Amino acid sequence: MDKYIRSMSFNMIHLCIDDYENYKIKGRAYNNTRQEVICFNDIDDIFIQFDRIFDDNGQPQASQSSRSFTHPKPLGRYQFRPETYNDYDEFLNEVGKKATLDLVIKSRKRSTWQGIIIYNGQEIAFDSILEMLNYVISFIES
User: Fold this and answer.
1) CB count, 10 Å around CB of 126?
2) What digits encode the pLDDT tens for the residues 126-140?
């Protein structure tokens, strides 16, 4: 995990899952390009919030533009290293009641995410949000 923290911590999400019932996942998320804790009441909320964060950071860049029927917000410019407010290591002490894991989002192709889940020292690659979500649910239920 250290290799990701050193090279692309701004694309990482420290996910603390506090509650899980009827496939509804609640918890907290941390990213070092944000000063505040990102609370969510369902996992789809995290995908929406982090797509906006990645758009603001300009990285990882989306392969497609989001559609909007209102005035679209301009996307952030690509930044090799977006501004960070914390060291990612500071988040590692935060623990969820049900599960704690880290996501490394490497790309956003085909309107979904691709990357790696780091759970209990194990790295698991995923090619879509759905695949990642299936892994997360299996971690919570185990």
Assistant:
1) 21
2) 999 999 999 999 999
